[in-house]
Structure formats: C-alpha cells, structure tokens
Design goal:
By secondary structure, this protein is α/β, with parallel strands linked by helices. The chain folds into two domains: about 140 residues, Lyase, Ornithine Decarboxylase, Chain A, domain 1 (Beta Barrel), CATH 2.40.37.10; about 180 residues, Alanine racemase (TIM Barrel, Alpha-Beta Barrel), CATH 3.20.20. Helices cover about 25% and strands about 25% of the residues. It has eleven helices and 20 strands. The strands form three sheets. Strands 1, 13, 14, 15, 16, 17, 18, 19 and 20 form a nine-stranded mixed sheet that branches. It has an eight-stranded parallel beta barrel with strand order 2-3-4-5-6-9-11-12, surrounded by five helices. It has a two-stranded antiparallel ribbon with strand order 7-10. Strand 3, helix 4 and strand 4 form a beta-alpha-beta unit. The longest helix is centred in the middle third of the chain and has 22 residues. The structure holds pyridoxal-5'-phosphate. The site of pyridoxal-5'-phosphate has 16 residues, from helix 10.
C-alpha cells in the first residue's frame, strides 16, 4: 500500500478549492499565478547570474501561462510550430525562443526562420542541411547549437534522455565531425552545445553532474573549433515531489554546487530549460465523485475526470512502477467515520483509468471533490484528450489579485478539445 501523501492544493485553502469548483464546474485545472512566481523566483535565486531560464512550453502551453513566465524574465523553449505560435500569442519575441525536437518539418523551420527565432538546436544531419537550405533561401543567418547525447552515464531521473542509444541529438562520440560540418554550413551560426539527460531529477548532485558534463562539452567545442561556445544549454529536468517518498529538490545544495562547477568559457551564456519545476506545483486537477461503489470489499470512487485529462497521475505516462500523485478527497461529511482506503477511478471504460490506487477516506459521497496536486505540468497537455470522446477539462488561472482568467474553456461533445484562449 502507498503511504498517504501530504495534502497539496497549490497554495489554496480547501474552501477556495470548493469555491472554484462550484464557480467553474468540474473537471477543472486550476493554475495559481502566485505559485508560478514562487517557483521561478526560488530557482532564479539558486542559480548564478550566468544562467538564463527558458521555460519549456511543453509543460503547459497555455498562452496565459507562457505570458506569466515572460513577465518574470524567462525565455522560452518550444518543440513545434504550434508551440511557437502559442508563444508568440503570449507576447514573446522570436529572439527569446529556442526550438528543439528530433523532427522539425520544413514548414515549421521556414516559419521560425522567417520570424527570426533565437536558436535552433540541431538533432540530425538532415536537419543541418535543411536549415542551411532554408537560411540561404531566406538570406538569413540562423543561430544553432548542437544537441549532444552524452557518453557518460550523466543521466539520472525518472525518464532518461541521455547516456543511452537515443533518437535525440548526436552521440558524443561523433561530436567533432558534427561540429566541423555545422561550422562550414552556409547560413548557420554555430553558437554552442545543448545537452538534456533526464527529466524529474530530484537530487541536486545528479543535476550538477549533468551540468558539469555539459560544461566539459563546451570546453571540447572550444578545443575543436578554436573558439569558445557562447551558449551551453543544460536542458530541463529539475524535479518536483510527486510521490510519497519524494523529497523536494534541494535548491540550497544546487546553489552551493553551482559554485563548484568547472569554469564556464568566457562570455558564455548558460541556459536551463525547466518545465515541470516551474509549473507542476502551481496546478491542481479537480474532479467530482459520481458514484461510490464497493466491489468484493474494495471501495471505488468513480469520478467525472480521469486519465484522458491527466495521464501522468494515472501512472500511464512513462511510469514503470505505478504510484499515486498527491490525491485528496474533500468530503463534505466525514464526522466520526473510520478511515478506509479507496481507489479513485475515472469515467473511461478501461482499467487503466485510475487517478489513485489508495487514498484514505472516511465517508465519501457523490458530489465530493477529488483533488490531484502537482498538476500544473504535463497534465492535460500530455494526455489522450480524444480517447473515448469525453470533453476536455476547463483550465483557469488564478491571478495574485484574486481575479481569474480562462486558459481553455471546457470541451463539449461537439468540440472535445477547444483551443487555448487567445487572452495572454
Ligand atoms: C529539450 C527539452 N528541454 C526541456 C524539457 C523540459 O523538461 P522538464 O519538464 O523535465 O524540466 C524537455 C522535456 O522533455 C525537453 O525535451
């Protein structure tokens, strides 16, 4: 059985959760601006000034969220023309944007080059030729960095993206030939190195080991090309406590460890691209109990929301061992009843649709709320929202002045997944 998790409502009181659930209906994502600010400022404080923070838009691409990060001073990292357009809608300038991803289409590259993208991170030989061709045709010079799949087992974290055979970036073993090829490619300005080894890293030493390796790659760049890189991008990967035994990333240890990193080449900008860390703790997912069922002694709470909105909480987004997110049932009447365990299920007709396997409840009833914490990142954006034809949940931003902004309206049976609101 899982350990019960601490209650997490992205800084809101239970009364506020009830209030917003009644105001906007369920299922609902609430994103709390105050918590975005808190996450950003605490990371900003921990990192040396040479580190720029680029928000990884894939974590939550709502323009109303992106604009919060821009206002705080973040740049952006995107993975598609769709995300590029959302970023521009949020008020970004193309220069603030980094474009990464293993398969960028000609049309996407033409669009971002035309608009003056800040950097593109190269991930294949085909891409080198394609971007060079597009740059020449548009008579532009495009700043590019080479994404490296590191040799060292620098990777740690829940989803490793480096140190193993990988579709992302170029293997470190061929770095020299890649750099030499890019250096002479027409229309490309080779500015540096990008390395992203793993996501959901909770140990500061693991992150520092990866960052050390990236800086060493920067020195290799200098040895090979006889000039220093102007950018070393260490990727995202900063973790948040998702499961019962998780401890938060120790930002004091990270700050102290940054002082011991190898020397950074002169005038070189370090870039970190967090997604989960900035947005995860800022959001909750709220759904409502529609049925309370006992089957062969086991208690099931069946809700109006589930894995089609929040695949990660269901344990089906890359998790090998199924563990529960911080899930709480807000019961209107719990007087005197004994604690019991319940499984929280969604409305889909698949046994995969489980929001929590073991949650402590007393007297759960239809209409009570289920709240999933740490749900601001990789929730609706990483879920099979069309699966079985249930409409998407509404998403709402709570501003620090207590006003609200609809990030995405609730879907309907005719329009399952409405677009994000154009308001930024
Ligand atoms: C290139 C790149 N940068 C940044 C991120 C953000 O990672 P995280 O949310 O773990 O910080 C990702 C996530 O997959 C990514 O692929």
């Amino acid at each position: 059985m899982n350990e019960p998790q601490a209650k997490q409502y992205c800084g809101l009181s239970e009364d506020s959760v009830w209030h917003y659930a009644e105001l906007f209906g369920t299922p609902l994502f609430l994103i709390h601006q105050e918590q975005i600010q808190h996450q950003f400022h605490s990371l900003r404080q921990a990192l040396p000034s040479q580190f720029a923070i680029h928000y990884s838009v894939k974590a939550n691409p709502a323009p109303g969220v992106i604009s919060q990060l821009l206002q705080l001073g973040a740049g952006l990292e995107i993975a598609s023309a769709g995300e590029f357009n959302l970023a521009m809608q949020a008020g970004a300038s193309a220069q603030q944007i980094i474009f990464a991803g293993p398969c960028k289409s000609r049309a996407e590259l033409q669009l971002v080059v035309e608009q003056g993208i800040g950097q593109i991170h190269l991930e294949s030989f085909e891409e080198i030729e394609l971007i060079s061709e597009i740059a020449l045709a548009q008579q532009k010079v495009v700043s590019v960095a080479v994404r490296v799949n590191p040799l060292a087992q620098a990777a740690a974290g829940s989803m490793r993206m480096g140190g193993l055979p990988s579709p992302f970036g170029f293997d470190e073993e061929i770095l020299e030939s890649v750099l030499r090829r890019v250096e002479v490619a027409a229309g490309l300005n080779l500015i540096g190195i990008h390395q992203f080894a793993a996501t959901q890293v909770l140990n500061a030493d693991d992150l520092l080991r990866q960052w050390t390796h990236a800086i060493r790659l920067g020195h290799k760049f200098e040895e090979i090309l006889n000039r220093p890189p102007t950018v070393i991008d260490v990727g995202g990967g900063l973790g948040i406590p998702l499961y019962a035994q998780d401890n938060p990333l120790d930002l004091h240890a990270l700050a102290a460890g940054c002082k011991t990193l190898p020397s950074i080449p002169l005038n070189c900008q370090m870039v970190v691209e967090p997604g989960r860390f900035l947005l995860g703790p800022a959001g909750i997912y709220i759904c409502k109990i529609a049925a309370v069922k006992r089957s062969r002694e086991k208690l099931f709470l069946i809700c109006d929301g589930g894995m089609h909105h929040h695949l990660a909480a269901s344990g089906n987004l890359g998790q090998v061992i199924k563990r529960d997110y911080p899930v709480t049932v807000l019961e209107r009447s719990n007087s005197g009843a004994e604690m019991q365990n319940a499984q929280i299920c969604g409305p889909l007709c698949t046994p995969l649709d489980v929001l929590a396997r073991s949650v402590q409840v007393q007297n759960p009833a239809v209409g009570d709320l289920v709240v999933v914490g740490q749900s601001g990142a990789y929730a609706s954006t990483a879920s099979p929202m069309h699966f079985l034809g249930h409409p998407a949940a509404a998403e709402v931003l709570l501003r620090t002045d207590s006003t609200t902004q609809i990030l995405r309206t609730r879907g309907t049976s005719k329009n399952l997944v409405p677009c994000y609101s154009t308001e930024s």
